[in-house]
Fold these 2 entries.
Entry 1:
Amino acid sequence: MKKSHENNYAIYLLTDDLLHIIYKKVPCINLKAAQLIVKDRMELQEGKPMPVLCDIREVRNIDKAARDYLALDGSLWVEKLAFLIDPPVTDMISSIYLDTHAQKVPTQSFTNKPEAMDYLGVKEKDNN
Amino acid sequence: MPNSDDFRVKRIQKMLLEMAKGNFFYTIEPSDKNDNIASLVVMLNMVNEEIGAAFIHQGFANAHNTPQCVVQLSFILDGNGQIELLTNGTCSLMSYLPKDLIGKHITAFMTEKSVERWTKKMTKYLKRERSETVLFLEFVTNDGLLLAKDCQISVYQALDGSGQKIHLNSVFFSKGEPFETSLPKKKLKVTKGIKEHKVTLTPDDIQIIRDVHDMITNNLDKDLPTLKDLARQKGTNEYKLKYGFKQIYGTTIFRFLIRERLRMAKTLIQHSTLTIKQIIQMTGFKSKTHFSRAFKEKYGMSPSDLRA
């Protein structure tokens, strides 16, 4: 099974054992954006809990309302979460987010994709 | 040179100074860059939001004496958007003198994005005789910091026949001067009853209570142990846990649990295809009646209405 989806803020690639979300380059992720990101993700997953690889390398700004929403409402059906980051900016964003919000889901940040996939326990099949 | 490191560091210093004064409503415009200064800017903006939120939520720290005041950003503009009148608070927020602002066009003090939004929306609203809306606008202060906020905008007709006017308004919370010097009266009380339960919380106690908060958030489907057991598990006592939680989060543990369960149920109802029955089980509710009643009370509609 392979599905993909795209909205204004992110691209979703769904395979049997992984959901890969790539955040697009937008000026700011606000609450409205976060709600759409979560809604589309949940609709795509159809209730199946899975590991998620979240590529936030293009993110430059995410406001508090969005962070709170993602941490509280945004974690349903996420088994394990890996952030793909590009220091220093997204490294900082992920560290502050992880430190200030209690995580329901085991989460770690990585600068390279194979390590992230390894953490999620997913074998890489394609090379994007 | 707005992009030189020197310039960017100066902005950061300005922002830190404002934070030191207790003004958490400024932000620094983030850049597209991915360097150390950019990451520092991002960090500062995020930390600023976190502290600001904790500050406004008075119960977070030992808040008995937290002075808090409201600073109003308020303009009256003519139909073209020229500034006619503003409050003193507005001047100090924007770090301009009144004479620098009066007579100027409001868009001269906005970011490009906001000018675009303003122009687009206001053409529509100004066509009506009266209208009211909320617009998210970013103002640029004299120091180059951003003031970003939802602004209430009302278009009205002046009584003296001078035509259409625009009233632009927003409020910010600031540390500033306290409202009153005497003991604050209606601050966050621990109980509604006659007796005021006040607990002195050490940093360790606060950490324990935060842990309990996080534990509840992460185990919404499970039954909550009795407060006594919970306190014992965490190495504190029931009294501290009970009243300390209320002091910090402004609600009782039980109400908090229900609130978070309802929040999860709402997300599931909106974005999943699970049946209401399944959702009730997943969110730890014991009875459908109780769930439906609590849900309707909180969100103003029944679970099935939200689904439909």
Entry 2:
Amino acid sequence: MAWLVLGDGKAFEGEAFGGWLEKEDEVRGEVVFNTSMCGYQEMITDLSYAGQILTFTHPQIGNYGWHQEESEASKVLLRGLIVRELSEGEGSLHADRSLEDFCKKQGIPGLKGVDTRALTRYIRKNGTMPGVIVDQLQNGTDFWRQYTPEEIQPDLHWVYQATVPEEFEIPGSGPVIAVLDLGAKRNILRCLQRRGYRLHVFPAGTSAEEILDIKPRGLVLSNGPGDPSGLPEIAENMEKLISRIPILGICMGHQIMAMAAGGTTYKLPFGHRGGNHPVQNKETGKVTMTSQNHGYAVSESSLKGTGLQVLYSNLNDGTVEGMKHEKYPVLTVQYHPEAAPGPEENGELFDTFAQMLGE
Amino acid sequence: MPKQNWQKVMVIGSGPIVIGQAAEFDYAGTQACRALREEGVETVLVNSNPATIMTDREVADKVYIEPLTVEFLERIIEKERPDGLLPTMGGQTGLNLAFQLSKAGILQRCGVTLLGTPLESISQAEDREHFRNLMRQIGEPIPASAIVSEVEEALRFAEEIGYPVIVRPAFTLGGTGGGIAQDAENLETIASSGIKASMIGQVLIERSVAGWKEVEYEVLRDSSGNSITVCHMENMDPVGVHTGDSIVVAPCQTLTDREVQTLRTAALRIVAALGIEGGCNVQFALHPEKLEYVVIEVNPRLSRSSALASKATGYPIAKVAAKIAIGYTMDELINAVTGKTSACFEPALDYVVVKIPRWPFDKFSDADRTIGTQMKATGEVMGLGRNLETALLKAVRSLETKFFGLFSEEMRKLTDEELEAKCRKPEDNLLFVMAEAFRRGWSVEKLTAINQWNPYFLKKIQTTVQYEEIIRNNPWNAKILQKAKRIGYSDKETARLWGTHEERIYEFREEHQIKPVFKMVDTCAGEFEATTPYFYSSYDQEDEGIVTNRRKVVVLGSGPIRIGQGIEFDYCSVHAVKALRKAGVESIIINSNPETVSTDFDTADRLYFEPLTIEDVTAVLDKEKPEGVVVQFGGQTAIGLCKRLAARGYHIMGTTVEDTDRAEERGIFDDVLQELGAKRPKGGCISSMEEAEKLAGEIGFPLIVRPSYVLGGRAMQIVYEQQELKNVFAKALLEFPGQQIWMDQYLLGKEVEVDAISDGETVCIPGIMEHLERAGIHSGDSIAVYPPQMISSEIQDTVTDLTVSIARSLNIKGLLNIQYVVYKNEVYVLEVNPRSSRTVPFLSKVTGVAIVELATRVILGETLQSMGIESGLWPVGDKVAVKAPVFSFSKLLLVEPSLGPEMKSTGEVMGIDRKYEKALYKALLAAGMHMSANGTLLATLADRDKEEGIKLVQRFYHLGFRIIATEGTAKAIYEAGVEVTTVGKLHTGSDEITEKIRKGQVQCVLNTTTHGRKIASDGFAIRRAAVEQGIPCFTSMDTAEAWLQVLEVNSPSLIPLS
């Protein structure tokens, strides 16, 4: 038996799997849930989950095993997994290993047999909160005697762990595109590569000048983990670029661009994580299904006077899903046009970006 | 918003229930009509099937129960002048009619706009060549194929691409006539029947992708191009089995995200290229080892799969499709489940859904049970669980085929060789075969190699089976039981392994508080708050069901659609729920059938999607603690549970368990009748051959033999002589070991049936129905007429009086159905069913009496008198209605089509008019009989039928038929002065007869069952050939006579002057 104990003391029972028992400390992190019905591998390797304990609402996880080439990053930054039932991965005849093997090898702790629906409903009602995974219920209770949930806030600077250590290039025949890696999913790079660009990938702390130095045709700001409001220095860098080059911001990249233009972000009660969020283009009225993974959102009212306009909004709760600039070629989306996991129908956004580049 | 304000819209239903087209279209049409009315659109509904909710007066503004033919639809359109027509709710029948109406210029002439997906899109999806061209244009892969209309062409093409090949006829229901051909000989047979089955005489010959994964997407698209996939589903059996006969799991379980998204993108592209506005189903085959796929099929309409997707996700597909049809875009619609989020989204499931087809082989034990490209299931069940095993086992229990787990004694007896053969060439029992294989220690790899099932699914079955040992070795271990419950083991299966009775397991669970919780189906995996009252059970931590303190009643549904227990009982359940709601009582329904209106989440106040077993029902009752349970509307399924529910302390509302027993247990019931002085055919209960012979000696032949307590006359048989009695009896003892068998005198009289509502004092009889065929043919397979045309008012009075006194004496509270036979002007009681019957919807519709509502009010405690209703027969109106059965023989190879005491029909239609002959005409036409007075009649008559039969033959002759007959019959016909051609009998080595039928040289067959084996097989071949050719085949002279009667009124006869 093992337990997930939430910051308010609520406990969920399960059984341990993966690589956590070798660790000395308890496993702590912000507990979030994703409602996608497949794509666990892409989620686990999505660096935006850094520091979080990820709950899958789909009850059977691991069915088709682990496919090396389908990871979104070469490292894993999430803290733990919570599933209702873990499968051995017989479903795919060409899997490299099972999910459980991967977790063991990578030291990713997991809890299975949990009533994940109960947990999800609890988070929905009470908001995202930190939790610890422990092998004794008592340890969890003790933990929350020692700390308040406020003290176990998500790290503001996960981005610097998620980003690449140093800049690098991916060759291509087309124009040079700079990518500011805040914890980028590989598929963003693949989507750009597929369009022939030469990619120059920069670490998160790169200055505006360094980026401009390579004379990129455009800039892509990637997704990344954590609270964007903790990264004013990146926003300041980007502010300098708004009027200089075409920019595409994705997820955290979108939030950073809002901040760069003078807007603000706020924390959603329990985030958007899944593959079925309807987003409407306010100009065309067209609705698409999107892949999402974010706990923060851009405040619509804060955009007044920033030059940014809301271009996309969430059909369920009306939150800002994307923006464009009145004067400059700046386009941002809160969702993931690169999919992986999730619906692929927003890949066209990269074509829009190409148009912004004047192609 | 709709660009045009539609005033009046016509919706076409799908007609009778046949294999390939079942209750799912009642659900779709009903939801569509409601959605249209919500928008203030006047609706006109046309369907020939009275046993549907959609044909209720409250569902549509104008309801026409008329034959679904172009002629009738044209007249309705002329009269009603709708401005729109919605054809995509009525299955393939609805689409085909829309095509014909359009082609005939009727829509244009009457100014009717086709709503939803444009006709061009539909024909592009349905016409193979157009579809293939479109796929090539947009770059979607399709298997190499060719369209042929000649068998030789088929052979040539197959030679080119190599065997095996798949044969798919164009424009048919449920893949009629299709199949996989392994070689040329095979292909010749399949292609020729396929060409015949196709409306346009074409079949597709296609590269076989058998063994690939089969995946389906349900897509909705609106006029502005917004598209969503409501659900993706994976067939557990690989390509090669018709999706209607496949075990299906939702969402896909073995596909990576990349695979799921690749296919999703393809589905959206296809639907966009077609220009779909509404629902569409896209089927793919996916290579099991690499990312390669082909598009197999597209259905540009609501389908069986969309009903399943709708129930599996909670997303109201038909409703949204109807709104799209009148011009809404999805972003303008709200998700009815959450009440606040958008309808333009894709449901997320946090449970697993398994659908298993319900096959009719429990009734047709001689049928070809193999499962392939020809659909054979009559219905289906769905199980929901938090893992695949639980969902699968729930679905298995829901089939109501006496399986409570994966163990089958029959499979245990097979040799390894037989087992392997059955794995390779699947039959309906494949699950149990594979379970047995795992029990013998076969590996997942071995089975995958044999039948290409995905190892993931096999592993799930293996794990489940392997747990049997653990359970067995740990008797009365609460921890193990808890774990077994999470895998989905039933109490009954656990009891088998622990060598005890199910009740002990129940008590043990009570003692250890091992109970399921209930989870909500909310379309969003818990992400948003939902208020849907749709639940399933799970052995989990949190129970999220809401339980109120209001007065509430549980109604048990009737489970899967099967022969003998069809959609009629769903109709009754839905009306019971409505009546409860009307009375201000909270209604709760339990059912396991995804095709029905009763399992729509807004039908009852709360829906529990659960198997109808004592264990699963008890769990719901235990949670809800209702005032009582209503069992009389759910057919034998619900009635079968009432004793045990009562024993567990639940209140059975309406007629008590004791009184139900008095009616159903023959011995007790005989005493009741004796007390009332009512007659019944002589008979008795026997349990050995000696007793049978003795009894036969007392009452004389012919006899009717039946096991007690069975559905739809299962295993009932008429016996004419000693030797036959021996055979039948031996078989019955084998099939129903230890059961009592009843044997009665067979009275060759007129059958009469009544439905009545009783409060124990007042007994209201809405109507008496007369059966056209004489006794001996199951009432469900007889043509029924209301009001009676041939029965004297004295007899009707006797029937009325008897019904009143039987209902009173049995203390019936609610509904009852009694079948009588009138023999030599005397009324005999055949059977009493203390519950709703198959004829309730028919009678409700023609008399206008809200039968189920009145019965429900009685059950709730009101008296009929207080409603102003008196005992006796309801006054007859000015209309005559005829109910005719519809069969699906052409889809069930090797099934004997001749009618008898065992029910064989899958559905029914109604013809209604002011005159009997007209009503009869409509009913026969609606039942799909060719009503043409030309051609050739083939007559083969049993000796005892010759005298009567010859008279019929003469009438055929006078109408203008040419007559051909087998030797003896021909001789008798000739002697009666009718021109006749003799054809050789089959057992003499000639296949002239069947060849003539197959070549289309015979238009009508009159064949009365003959007894004795050789001749029987002759008759069998003739009858099979006739049903496969789709020509009328009369095995009862009464049916033939009805048909003649209609034609004689409608067609001028051809009699030369000299």
